[in-house]
TrEMBL record:
Keywords attached to this entry: Hydrolase
Organism: Microbulbifer marinus
Leader sequence residues: none
Pfam short name (any one): CpsB_CapC
Family: Belongs to the metallo-dependent hydrolases superfamily. CpsB/CapC family.
InterPro entries found in the cross-reference section: Caps_polysacc_synth_CpsB/CapC, Pol/histidinol_Pase-like
Catalytic activity: O-phospho-L-tyrosyl-[protein] + H2O = L-tyrosyl-[protein] + phosphate
MF annotations from Gene Ontology: manganese ion binding; protein tyrosine phosphatase activity
Name of the protein in question: protein-tyrosine-phosphatase
Length: 247
């Protein structure tokens, strides 16, 4: 399986606090059946002031640790980017790492505020499209506006957004409302990928397999694997050329 949203890199956001904690998460991911992952630390202006260069620096150290510890996880990096007034400037300055590509467009893992869909989002999504950037919305099933009124997802669909749902939302880890929303999205066929969004070995462990199995019960085995292998591979294949099995 391929995990496109996880917080393994140490000491730069609310994920792994130390390199040892990051390695513990990596080992758990491998045990869960994850062979490839893209580390996505937060870029959140004023809170987690990361950028492509600072993330790359931590990633280099962490990848060396993976190799030293013989942990067979093929890892690259991007970022989970919070929508903010500063974001267009950061993008124009090439300070934002992308997940990969989808149908010729760069993919930005975009985090909305948990509380609502903010005004101005439509203009920003149009601005992205003009620059050949496609937003993948992180964990939309946990956004309170969408939880209150599921039809608000249509607003994002009109802008051709991709959707990353947290795997364990399908199992109820984030409550019944988030589970119901994730299941509705799954039945409608609008989920692009499932990912772990792992932060902590106990509170938020990397449990992608459980999410895939939950998806299988709703849409069948083939469709469930598309969410944890085919579609993630389509996005991030350029990241993993050296670690992909032959066709």
């Amino acid at each position: 399986m391929i995990d496109l949203h996880c917080h393994l890199l140490h000491g730069i956001d609310d994920g792994a606090g130390t390199i040892e904690q990051g390695l513990e998460l990596a080992r758990a991911a491998v045990e869960d059946g994850i062979t490839h992952a893209v580390a996505t630390p937060h870029i959140h202006a004023g809170r987690y002031d990361n950028n492509a260069d600072s993330i790359a620096s931590v990633y280099k150290v962490f990848r060396q640790a993976l190799e030293r510890e013989h942990i067979p996880l093929h890892l690259d990096y991007a970022a989970e980017v919070r929508l903010s007034a500063e974001l267009p400037v950061l993008l124009m300055q090439d300070k934002i790492p992308f997940l990969g590509e989808w149908e010729g467009s760069k993919v930005l893992l975009l985090e909305l505020p948990h509380s609502h869909i903010p005004p101005g989002l439509d203009q920003f999504l149009r601005w992205l499209k003009q620059r050949n950037i496609r937003a993948m919305i992180a964990h939309p099933e946990r956004n309170k506006d969408i939880l209150r009124q599921f039809h608000k997802l249509e607003r994002l669909l009109r802008h051709d957004c991709l959707f990353q749902v947290t795997a364990t939302s399908l199992n109820g880890q984030f409550g019944e409302a988030a589970m119901s929303c994730a299941q509705q999205m799954l039945k409608r066929g609008v989920i692009t990928v499932l990912a772990t969004d792992t932060h902590h070995i106990v509170r938020r462990p990397p449990n992608l397999s459980a999410g895939r199995q939950a998806a299988e019960k709703i849409v069948g085995e083939m469709k469930s694997w598309e969410l944890v292998w085919d579609n993630p591979l389509k996005i991030a294949s350029c990241q993993f050329i050296d670690g992909l099995p032959p066709d």
